[in-house]
Write a structure and sequence with these properties.
With about 80 residues, this protein is α+β, with helices and mostly antiparallel strands. The protein has 4 helices and 6 strands. Strand 2 and strand 3 form a beta hairpin.
């Protein structure tokens, strides 16, 4: 079974990342709508681009802090962070 993973990223601007997946797909995801819509103290730091860019790729997914912020891989792949479907 094929497991979809993030293999690399490239910063575009502010809270936008170009995300490269192990199947060759590339998504450009703007995290700002999510980060600025969440009213929780744990996310305040990520409103600053310098802190937002302090993420790492762990087990094929993007992770901020100690799992403070992590997203389902398919939401990154399909660029659907804010969809409620």
């Amino acid at each position: 079974m094929f497991e979809l993973k993030v293999i690399s990223t490239k910063h575009h601007a502010n809270h936008q990342l170009e995300i490269h997946f192990n199947d060759g797909h590339i998504s450009i995801v703007d995290f700002a709508p999510f980060i600025f819509s969440v009213d929780h103290p744990n996310y305040e730091i990520y409103k600053q681009p310098a802190h937002f860019l302090n993420y790492k790729i762990v087990d094929g997914n993007l992770q901020w802090g100690d799992y403070t912020m992590i997203f389902p891989i398919m939401d990154l792949y399909n660029n659907t962070l804010m969809n409620s479907d």
